[in-house]
Design brief:
homodimer, mainly alpha, 10 helices, DNA-binding
DNA sequence: GTCTATAGCCAGATAGAC
DNA sequence: GTCTATCTGGCTATAGAC
């Protein structure tokens, strides 16, 4: 089982380098503006060689998403290992990680509309499995937080989950960074605080939500 | 001054139809996936005719953005006309309008990264002027809300403003709609409530924001 | 001012030598 | 498996007839 040929190891390293490059470009320019030529140039190999490893541009993006989901799961596991932590704090830590990562230019984001890309993602077993796993793990904490009164129990758990996911592609940190008035730490604190207060357990202040 | 030739009126109507089509496609597929051929087909004219009205695809997108900013200003004016309304309710009403519009597939959204498009937008006097006007008007209400204690006074007003702007391209309503469990009205209520609570005046519940 | 037809370009994908 | 060179399709933009 542990027998892995040197050849395979080299392959793995190269593919890791490719995915890392895709990750950078994806978070920097987005899927549509990222070109396969750029990916090849960044890795330092020819485009044709790239296509030996991944069959399409969509597959490249999917691999980057799988990677980030794996890392997310790692963060979740680390958080789960810290005993006696209130669920809301665990969720806050994961969210903080996502925001920090986005600010650092290391969070790939995909257009939620590109249909061919969606098709590839939905067909990717690893991606789907990881996405469900992450959702389940976070979902548990959300429900626990609601039972403990830390999270607004009138919000469907999905809404909290999606709101958390959306922090990974929130444009607000980028705007604030572009403004140049705040350092990264402050930006993370502001965005995270707003998110946390938005899902918190107290009753909503504006009852009828102004029509 | 009021003398407008029939010819000009026809031109205006046609250009309105073009911008409306761009608006739909832009909110449906986004800028990169929208093709000029599609716009022409949707309007029912030839592509070359389109280019008689607008010099480039970027200009089409810019025109759509100017239009939506104008409409936003209209909503703001209408809200300002309602006397004795607390500033937070005014802000909530504008935000509600944006979310509803996005859910209806009528809110154009641009990639915040495409450089050539950014250049065209920044060079568009109408666009810049309207954007500043909208920001100023909303900014006033934000500051008033903070003074009245309705909005968290520890948040820089920009943060509140950007958070509000971000509701126009928030993926959460789309996710919830795709889930099929909630009708539009409920989705708007959930997202709006989360936003409002996020900026509300009470102290943040999670003091140290979980590291 | 509208059309048809096409130029020109660029990016994803591939062939074939080594 | 990696390279250079090329194909192919689709897109923005334009020429030129009417």
């Amino acid at each position: 089982m542990a027998k892995v040929s040197l050849r395979e190891q080299v392959l793995r390293v190269r593919e890791d380098a490719i995915i890392a490059a895709v990750n950078r470009l994806l978070s920097d320019k987005g899927y549509d503006l990222m070109t396969v030529d750029e990916v090849a140039a960044e890795v330092g190999i020819a485009k044709a060689s790239l296509y030996r490893h991944f069959p399409s541009k969509e597959a490249l993006a999917a691999a980057a998403m799988v990677r980030v989901l794996r890392q997310t799961l790692g963060v979740i596991d680390a958080e789960a290992a810290r005993a006696q932590r209130p669920p809301l704090e665990r969720l806050a830590a994961v969210t903080r990680w996502a925001i920090e990562r986005q600010l650092a230019g290391e969070m790939p984001s995909l257009p939620s509309q590109n249909s061919s890309l969606r098709a590839v993602l939905l067909a990717d077993k690893d991606y789907i499995e990881l996405l469900m796993k992450v959702s389940d793990r976070l979902g548990e904490w959300i429900v626990q937080g609601q039972q403990a009164g830390e999270i607004d129990a009138t919000l469907p758990p999905e809404v909290v989950l999606y709101t958390l996911f959306a922090r990974a592609c929130d444009p607000v940190p980028g705007f604030l960074k572009a403004g140049g008035q705040y350092d990264d730490e402050r930006i993370v604190a502001l965005v995270l605080a707003t998110f946390l207060k938005g899902i918190s357990g107290s009753a909503a202040p504006a009852s009828n939500s102004a029509r």
